[in-house]
Design a protein that fits this description.
Mean pLDDT: 96
Number of strands: 12
Oligomer: single chain
Structural class: alpha/beta
Bound molecules: S-adenosylmethionine, iron/sulfur cluster
Number of helices: 10
Strand content: 15-25%
CATH architecture: Alpha-Beta Barrel
CATH class: Alpha Beta
Low-confidence stretches: none
Number of domains: 1
């Protein structure tokens, strides 16, 4: 079993396969996009496979593919097929914006992908455009329908933005009445590829919950799954659940079981750190698997205790990078 210097089990890898995206969600990147990485700066599929295979041998049991938008990278499906065959990997899953995903659902199901996380910040077509600068609302809804038809478990992610989609909180919660999905609300974090600090921020997990409680006073807390980053709730009589992720408040760090690897191949042992090891460079420098494993272990054994400590360690580089360069 892989554990860090704080005794936390490490068994989950989030692998961001590209920084590119076909949406421009305003909480994630500026409308004009960011300085996209050159292809040679990205980890190749082969490098990603070597990395995953090493980490699975070390104790990683679950891999989530994310980005950017995973499906804008060419040849993603053959890569997923290879990953799905990794000995020892118990769960392969992904986070997608749903724009290109619907036609791929049958093949994802065949590869053994049982659940998908899908970004959905509003149920209103105009607000979808205002938030993401792209007219792709229908494609996203089709992904939801297709995934449910194929029995794929769905969790939606809504980033709660003051003045932009708080009026969507209750309509999103209402989805759980008839649909067996987990509707999750995420505190907005300053990973937006632009201004580093908020002048004003009020939609924390408490305010989100209180807003839901006003409409649904009978909402009940349910048991959170091990390592869950969400506080989970259920409204009696509804088919789905509601989750709230205190991503900016950072109240879940005590059980954090995850590593992240960016599209450039940088290992992050905390979402809020500045990157702690360049895996791609180690491979391109020709280090052996044993040498890379040792360097990985050193970093896992010197993890920050929590996101606040990791952020403090960044010194003069405050959090401001686009989430599409990290993967969420
Ligand atoms: N493109 C895919 C998607 O949107 O689902 C995967 C990548 S996206 C960076 C992963 C997750 O990060 C999404 O659920 C998105 O809502 C979340 N995210 C992006 N920027 C964020 C921010 N500034 N604060 C909180 N969550 C953010
Ligand atoms: Fe793209 Fe996802 Fe970022 Fe939206 S949150 S811009 S879909 S990477």
């Amino acid at each position: 079993m892989l554990t860090d210097n704080h005794g936390r089990k490490i068994n989950y890898l989030r692998l961001a396969v590209t920084d590119r995206c076909n949406l421009r969600c305003s909480y994630c990147m500026p409308e004009e996009g960011i300085n996209w990485l050159d292809r040679k700066e990205l980890m190749s599929y082969e490098e990603m496979l070597v990395t995953c295979s090493l980490l699975v041998k070390m104790g990683i049991e679950k891999i989530r593919i994310t980005g950017g938008e995973p499906f804008v990278r060419k040849d993603m499906m053959p890569f997923l097929e290879q990953l799905s065959q990794l000995q020892g990997l118990k769960e392969l899953t992904l986070t997608t914006n749903g724009v290109l995903t619907a036609p791929l659902i049958p093949e994802l199901k065949r590869l053994g992908i049982r659940s998908i996380n899908l970004s959905l910040d509003t149920l209103d077509r105009n607000r979808f455009f205002a938030i993401s600068f792209r007219d792709e609302f229908d494609a996203v809804l089709e992904t939801i329908d297709t995934a449910l038809q194929h029995g794929i478990e769905l969790k939606t992610n809504t980033v709660v933005m003051d003045g932009k989609n708080t009026m969507d909180i209750i309509p999103m919660v209402n989805l759980t009445k008839d649909l067996p999905i987990s509707v999750r609300f995420i505190e907005e974090m300053p990973f937006n590829g632009g201004e580093a600090h908020y002048k004003h921020w009020e939609w924390n997990h408490v305010k989100i919950l209180n807003t839901i409680k006003e409409a649904y006073p009978g909402i009940e807390k349910i048991q959170d799954a091990a390592y869950s980053t969400a506080y989970n709730y259920h409204i009696p009589g509804h088919k789905g659940n509601v989750g709230i992720i205190a991503a900016y408040t950072r109240s879940f760090c005590g059980t954090c079981n995850r590593l992240r690897i960016t599209p450039e191949g940088i290992l992050k042992t905390c979402l809020y750190d500045n990157g702690v090891l360049n895996m791609k460079q180690l491979m391109r420098d020709g280090l052996s698997a044993e040498e890379i494993e040792q360097q990985l272990l050193n970093k896992i054994k010197s993890r920050a205790a929590n996101g606040h400590e990791a952020e403090r360690n960044r010194l003069n580089n405050p959090v401001h990078e686009s989430m599409s360069t990290i993967g969420g």
